[in-house]
């Protein structure tokens, strides 16, 4: 099976779909891997390391030629499609809602597209779950950014120059990223609180040593995700959280609802209640932000409170983010192979769930609606 790894094209993207280690594993499974020269450079994987792992390193114009499987991190540009075989399988994050026209182009071309973000969050798919692996990176980075921007220490210190109390950190939205942010802030010595609308999340936060803020709102949705709150629930939530937020030195937010704008958990008024020198790191900046003042990709200051809305945090830790992502892809590729041949069972729950386009059709319902 011929696998291609083109260089990522999104501005600032430093990750690469395959690492030399995973290339070697795929070669052992009987695959041939062709990689665009320099594809791993910004993640510090050299062309030489890929060659040693058994990949063929080629110029951009040759990488997609004859590929049966194309592996990427972000979406392959529509302009590259003419170089991809109609029968190929394209695998990577696709962000269909950001550019439905691109999905239409994929369907028109006839290739099968697997969207990494659509892989079902079921036990059997855990090893392929790139949303989780990349959220782990994002949560860790978020806590470090918060510590970096903070005007205060995270740990408690007892020194000759006096005693410093630990920073008070609130993590709102305790999914994969939130849990990693909690764990990292705890390791730095902060006093950590957690808030989520799912009961299971509260238990996990407790087990990491965080204190849990409990409100009488339970919003378990489908597939382990949260559902959107009603207007009344939302108003009650904001009122109850306002006092808590006002007492924090650091707030890290990660709340998301699949396919929707991120819920607002921190209003401008709540930011106004925080002490000058406090910090908010909003991981939901990409989908509209959990804080009213968030500006995607920027750090703004309001009344002495810094509000950071970082984008694509996994790319800031490109070595490990790529390693984890490449292993997710490897496990998904294994599901497509049988005796070294490409033999996808499209009725498999994982493949069916992740399938975005197939045989000239958009196979993902919500995206089909977007395209109209
Ligand atoms: P996510 O990124 O979709 O959302 C982050 C968190 O925000 C979630 O915990 C969610 O409950 C919370 N949230 C949403 N609206 C909120 C609101 N108004 N107020 C407060 N919090 C709010 O979540 P995720 O990290 O992708 O995880 C989603 C689910 O998938 C979780 O249940 C997680 O445990 C589960 N999961 C399962 C597997 C598996 O079994 N294979 C793997 C990973 C994650």
TrEMBL record:
UniProt keyword Transferase, yes or no: no
Translocase keyword on record: yes
Enzyme Commission designation: 7.1.1.1
Domain Alanine dehydrogenase/pyridine nucleotide transhydrogenase N-terminal: 4-138
UniProt catalytic activity: NAD(+) + NADPH + H(+)(in) = NADH + NADP(+) + H(+)(out)
MF (Gene Ontology): NADP binding; oxidoreductase activity; proton-translocating NAD(P)+ transhydrogenase activity
Entry GO terms, CC: plasma membrane
Family matches, as PROSITE patterns: ALADH_PNT_1 (PS00836), ALADH_PNT_2 (PS00837)
Enzyme class: translocase
A Gene Ontology biological process term: NADPH regeneration
Pfam families: AlaDh_PNT_C (PF01262), AlaDh_PNT_N (PF05222)
SMART domains: AlaDh_PNT_C, AlaDh_PNT_N
Source taxon at top rank: Bacteria
Gene3D superfamilies: NAD(P)-binding Rossmann-like Domain
All residue ranges annotated as the Alanine dehydrogenase/pyridine nucleotide transhydrogenase NAD(H)-binding domain in the record: 147-309
Keywords: NAD, NADP, Nucleotide-binding, Oxidoreductase, Translocase
Family: Belongs to the AlaDH/PNT family.
NCBIfam families: PRK09424.1 (NF006942)
Described purpose of this protein according to its UniProt entry: The transhydrogenation between NADH and NADP is coupled to respiration and ATP hydrolysis and functions as a proton pump across the membrane.
PANTHER family, A to Z: NAD(P) TRANSHYDROGENASE (PTHR10160), PROTON-TRANSLOCATING NAD(P)(+) TRANSHYDROGENASE (PTHR10160:SF19)
Protein name (record): proton-translocating NAD(P)(+) transhydrogenase
